[in-house]
Design goal:
The structure holds two protein chains of two kinds. Chain A is α+β, with helices and mostly antiparallel strands. Chain A is built from two helices and four strands, in the order E-H-E-H-E-E. In chain A, helix 1 runs parallel beside helix 2. The longest helix of chain A has 12 residues. Chain B is of the alpha+beta class. Chain B folds into two domains: 201 residues, no CATH class; 103 residues, no CATH class. In chain B, a hairpin with a 2-residue loop joins strand 5 and strand 6. In chain B, helix 6 packs across helix 7. Classes of the chains: A alpha+beta, B alpha+beta. At the A-B interface, helix 1 and helix 2 of A face helix 2, helix 4 and strand 2 of B.
């Protein structure tokens, strides 16, 4: 189990979702990925992608224009 | 969505693939414009996948897709939309994914591809003659099934092998979507993506005009992702062949365009409220000053004697000065792209 970070600031959806998907493909179950983003669309799209693909959103927070989403990679 | 549901009805596991070309209308556009930010955000592909209970793979094909836009073997539609080449390319990509999955013993295999195509629904790419062409040129051949019009096409491999019951597929044909809507209601699908709404900017006349203008100004057919993103925002005004202005229309566009200030010359209003303007190309100092006067025309100081602006050159060196806004008549209608 390891922590990983992904910076998608400045990118617009669906690019943050695509980058999240591609990052998670390389991770192991139990790993945690923290995605930072500036497009508010990720607040909807990344949790939706996680629900569809069986991963778990541990936390999401927004401070000014910056958004952080923590995802636990699950077996899927 | 409906094609997937038809196949699921036969007890078959389906996964979705959604391709990002850079020209997609949703997503980016909604994120940029402030008025759209008020709307409920929903990526249609993700939403549909969730409604259907299927996994979705979103693939970035924007770089490879350039060749389809720049050199479409089958030509363009009404605008710069290479719909037929696009379908061949996307089915081909899906077929490559299918083949790759079949070759890897540790991955689950998939047996065939389905699309929601209906014969006669689109004038360019969904005609009876183009259906076999897409199957052939994509390499999917008879592993490509169109569940919504399969009964008026020759049986495919999955039908011949009995993996799919052909009798439970459909014979929809033509532009009338009432039968599809009735079937959707039968399945309990009451909310679905706008059926006739374009999802690709290349089918948009105004966007295609801006793209053609970009190619003409560059002297070659080519683009970067940033180019095609910026064609989605602002008013585009070309006073001379070697430079154009992109004038933001609202706060959301202002914020988005701010990210490009280091790549372009820019004009920012100081004394009055007004849009951020990017200047693309190689204007002389005099022309940059004129661009600032045009930008001032779109500000709250449009009728003032003088407005204060900051002109920033590529790379970020700025200078503050006063300019007189041009009159509305000074902007020739032909300058608007």
């Amino acid at each position: 189990m390891a922590d990983h970070n992904l910076d998608t600031r400045g990118l617009l959806c669906p690019m943050p979702v695509i980058k999240t998907q591609n990052a998670i493909r390389k991770l192991q179950a139990g790993d945690v990925l923290t995605v930072t983003a500036t497009d508010p669309g990720v607040l909807h799209d990344i949790p939706a992608w996680c629900r569809i693909n069986g991963h778990k959103v541990l936390e999401q927070k927004q401070e000014n224009r910056e958004i952080e989403i923590r995802i636990e990679v699950c077996e899927s | 969505m409906l094609a997937v549901r038809v196949i699921q009805e036969q007890g078959i596991l389906v996964e979705g693939v959604n391709f990002f070309t850079g020209f997609c209308v949703e997503g980016h556009t909604h994120a940029i414009r402030k008025k759209d930010q008020q709307k409920q955000k929903r990526n249609n592909a993700l939403w549909v996948a969730e409604q259907l209970g299927i996994k979705l793979h979103i693939e970035d094909i924007s770089e490879e897709y350039k060749d389809i836009v720049l050199n479409p073997k089958h030509g363009y539609g009404a605008h710069l939309n290479p719909c037929l080449d696009c379908k061949v390319f996307m089915v081909g990509k899906a077929n490559a994914m299918l083949n790759k999955a079949r070759q890897m013993a540790d991955e689950k295999g998939f047996d065939f591809i389905i699309t929601g195509e209906v014969i006669g629904q689109r004038p360019k790419s969904q005609r009876k003659q183009t259906m076999p062409l897409i199957a052939r040129e994509s390499g999917a051949d008879d592993r490509l099934v169109r569940p919504l019009c399969a009964k008026i096409l020759p049986p495919t491999l999955p039908e011949r092998e009995g993996w799919l019951d052909r009798e439970k597929l459909y014979d929809f044909n033509g532009r009338n979507r009432k039968p599809q809507i009735a079937l959707a209601q039968q399945f309990g699908l009451l909310d679905f993506a706008q059926p006739a709404g374009g999802c690709c900017f290349l089918t948009d006349e105004s966007y295609s005009r801006k793209l053609a203008d970009l190619w003409q100004a560059q002297g070659r057919k080519d683009y970067e992702l940033d180019d095609i993103m910026l064609l989605k925002v602002g008013r585009h005004i070309r006073p001379a062949p070697h430079y154009k202005l992109i004038v933001s229309r609202e706060e959301g566009e202002n914020n988005f365009m701010s990210g490009y200030k280091k790549q372009f010359h820019s004009v920012r209003l100081i004394s009055h409220g007004g849009p951020l303007t990017l200047v693309d190309g190689n204007p002389s100092d005099e022309e940059l000053l004129y661009a600032a006067r045009i930008a001032a025309r779109f500000s709250q100081g449009r009728d003032a004697e003088s407005v204060q602006v900051e002109i920033q050159s590529k790379g970020g060196v700025g200078r503050v000065l006063n300019v007189t806004p041009v009159s509305a008549d000074d902007i020739a209608p032909s300058w608007y792209i």
